UniProtKB/TrEMBL annotation:
<dbReference type="InterPro" id="IPR049315">
    <property type="entry name" value="GDC-P_N"/>
</dbReference>
<feature type="domain" description="Glycine dehydrogenase C-terminal">
    <location>
        <begin position="782"/>
        <end position="903"/>
    </location>
</feature>
<feature type="domain" description="Glycine cleavage system P-protein N-terminal">
    <location>
        <begin position="454"/>
        <end position="736"/>
    </location>
</feature>
<dbReference type="InterPro" id="IPR015422">
    <property type="entry name" value="PyrdxlP-dep_Trfase_small"/>
</dbReference>
<feature type="domain" description="Glycine cleavage system P-protein N-terminal">
    <location>
        <begin position="19"/>
        <end position="447"/>
    </location>
</feature>
<dbReference type="InterPro" id="IPR049316">
    <property type="entry name" value="GDC-P_C"/>
</dbReference>
<comment type="function">
    <text>The glycine cleavage system catalyzes the degradation of glycine. The P protein binds the alpha-amino group of glycine through its pyridoxal phosphate cofactor; CO(2) is released and the remaining methylamine moiety is then transferred to the lipoamide cofactor of the H protein.</text>
</comment>
<comment type="subunit">
    <text>The glycine cleavage system is composed of four proteins: P, T, L and H.</text>
</comment>
<dbReference type="InterPro" id="IPR020581">
    <property type="entry name" value="GDC_P"/>
</dbReference>
<dbReference type="GO" id="GO:0004375">
    <property type="term" value="F:glycine dehydrogenase (decarboxylating) activity"/>
</dbReference>
<dbReference type="InterPro" id="IPR015421">
    <property type="entry name" value="PyrdxlP-dep_Trfase_major"/>
</dbReference>
<comment type="similarity">
    <text>Belongs to the GcvP family.</text>
</comment>
<dbReference type="InterPro" id="IPR015424">
    <property type="entry name" value="PyrdxlP-dep_Trfase"/>
</dbReference>
<dbReference type="Pfam" id="PF21478">
    <property type="entry name" value="GcvP2_C"/>
</dbReference>
<feature type="modified residue" description="N6-(pyridoxal phosphate)lysine">
    <location>
        <position position="709"/>
    </location>
</feature>
<dbReference type="Pfam" id="PF02347">
    <property type="entry name" value="GDC-P"/>
</dbReference>
<dbReference type="InterPro" id="IPR003437">
    <property type="entry name" value="GcvP"/>
</dbReference>
Amino acid sequence: MTVHRTPLTRLEEGTPFAQRHIGPDAEARAKMLAQVGFGSLDELTAAAVPEVIRSAEALQLPAARTEAEVLAELRALARRNEVVDSMIGLGYYGTFTPPVILRNVMENPAWYTAYTPYQPEISQGRLEALLNFQTMVADLTGLPTSGASLLDEGTAAAEAMALSRRVGKVKKGVYLVDADTFPQTVAVLRTRAEPTGVEVVVADLSQGLPAEYAEGGVTGVLLQYPGASGAVRDLRPVIEQAHAVNAVVTVAADLLALTLLTPPGELGADIAVGTTQRFGVPMGFGGPHAGYMAVREAHARSLPGRLVGVSVDADGDKAYRLALQTREQHIRREKATSNICTAQVLLAVMAGMYAVYHGPDGLRAIAERTHRYASLLAAGLRAGGVAVAHGEYFDTLTVTVPGRADAILAAAREQGVNLYRVDADTLSLACDETTDRARLAAVWAAFGVSADIEALDASAEDALPGALRRTSTYLSHPVFHAHRSETAMLRYLRSLSDKDYALDRGMIPLGSCTMKLNATTEMEPVTWPEFGSLHPFVPVSQAQGYLELIRELEERLAEVTGYDRVSLQPNAGSQGELAGLLAVRGYHRANGDTARTVCLIPSSAHGTNAASAVMAGMKVVVVKTAEDGEVDLGDLHAKIDKHRDELAVLMITYPSTHGVFEEHVADVCAAVHEAGGQVYIDGANLNALVGLARPGHFGGDVSHLNLHKTFCIPHGGGGPGVGPIGVREHLAPYLPNHPLQPSAGPETGVGPVSAAPWGSAGILPISWAYVRLMGGEGLKEATQVAVLSANYIAKRLEPHFPVLYTGPAGLVAHECIVDLRELTKTTGVSVDDIAKRLIDYGFHAPTMSFPVAGTLMIEPTESENLAELDRFCEAMIAIRAEIEKVAAGTWPAEDNPLRNAPHTARALAGEWEHAYERAEAVFPGHVDPTTKYWPPVRRIDQAFGDRNLVCSCPPLDAYED
């Protein structure tokens, strides 16, 4: 009898995670390689990637681990974080995420794997959720127009500063900031103001404008409400004074407090900004959280970021869309109103749903309970002889304890509570939704105070000023009253996600956006309390697990990119661009080269590049693109020669925005360096380089990376993202830092670009886990399969749609551009028609008309298997045959499935007077009727929406009208 034995070591290995992450298996790869004309992945990438940039050494990363092992490592890191009740405040508060929202939004791939809703017909669910968010913010702030979220409160305040300068009458005055503003907000304002020549003046505005500014010369004013100290004061007098000298007034307001306090709009503010973190979003050691901005109607069309509006579809039915999309950076470039390219959609959805679930009465009750605990805390401290600075406050107390602050701080930590040290004599304490009686008792004990909470509750008065108590209504729309039970809320969330198309349904082949697998193992740790419950300003001794994870991720990203140092603070790719350019600016200024202000940018570059350069105080000079899609070397050298003495930096994307590996990139970098400039390599397309080439080795001085692309943080419907920067050693002294956490950056840094020291730290475990799961070989293999998949699609589609640009050996990088311009010219079928028709076939469209108008840019990623790649190719080929029917006159140019796409179930059931059959409309090609995705609306009228801007939930009669 034969005995079979399998060694235990083999059984313990398990399935390598790379096999789960990468879609095509060995058999599929062989078929794809045969189609492309290569025998192996190594042969393909050797032909595609120019030899001059290829890395000779393998990535020196820890070996790949199994999913179980990586989760165990993350558990060990998490245990090194000490979860202490936080009363630090300063814009970050404990909150309870309703489990129905935690499970069905934050942990639900139908929400977190969706993309920015540029294709609104298949994004109606998240657009409605964002409209809820906008309505919530507009109602609570008392201002009519709110955006669909910004990155955090600090950057929202900086955007308000820029907006004030843009729309105000005073263009060159100072920007006044009240001294009672969150310190991190002041620091971000200073970082953002200095390159653009704005002078930020911090002053005590509690008694009005200082005399020297009462005559004018003030661009704008920022007031915190309630103040950082907790004080609640009537802002109307200082707002009136500011308006008298033509200053634009911004109020940074706490939305929970606004359920009880007169809103900024009623006080006279022009702009309101803040964070929605305390509406059910975990603190996450600083982020991600949805910042907000609301403005007066006159400023709606200058609002930075994204704006959801109401329009109509082809049947005249109400439909949602992103409004005023011409403001986006890839169109307006250096004339863009902001460099913000992303938002915080997933977190905005959570905050908006928190308001939907609780409604106005529930929010008011949370606010009243929070305030009541603060009132009782203050009463107990006063009774014990502790001086409380303010008599009117909402949730935060400032107390004076001469010489005792450090001792009390330590005693509170022994009691399991973190307070905030203002100075050696002063502490502040913030109550929140999670505050309870036990926490008050712990605080009193730390102060050496004995208090009877029941007796205090019977006698203590509330501390909100009567003249500022809110009388106006808010959240009156039915959506904030209809979903009180968990059953109703669950079904509402399901109904919205059912309207949308996300990665959980199928491929999203967006060029430049890298919509790849966001593995459940990578996502799981984000909601662990050891990662989610930490305040960003806790003592570093309480965040040792986080700091170890951050250090390891920085080191591993440096290894991947070939740079010496990495900063994880930028909380979006746009902020990474800004941080990288500020580092370049700091380097030149430190060398005395203050005249170096010119930023060379190829005409094909991402539009955020130009917008970021302007924000960094640079002058944009555009470099032409050659016929083959590469940088025009002649024009580049001419521009270098012309601006040699003022050249600061060249920004290029590599592989290029056209989806090719440019062979002369090392020569380009050398030419810039020879002229004294720096090279910024935009890392948006890094998914084509990892394991094959390192930007820091082939000429880059600085790059930002998109962790929400290459390193698997999901797009979340348009955010969150993380955009860290890698730099060579000479730029390291100019990385971002932070005034409240010295270890977050170099002492010589440029200041913070995000409100939190490590930006959106709460989602860094995702990328840490991805790198740990894949190891160096897995990361390289993922890159090679991404390049293979793009070339496979290019080869399959090339007989039907010309591929616009190719690089070495006629190959593309990780994406390809198909040219539709001649087809449109001869048949009238547009890019929009093909994009919308793909919906009928069950696909999200590729990137439309970027970087070349009239084209589609396709990026399949490494995560899609061969069956899905073929399904997409077959859909595109079938659409090409449909275009031929239009060209031949079989279908009229104005009445065909492409022009009328997408087709809804309602359209199918109605009168049918089209020149094509119903089945051709809704079941084209091989679409399976049993699994078909049905779009909820027909094609949306974009122009109507821009002409009739509606940015909050309209009343029901408006829908009927």
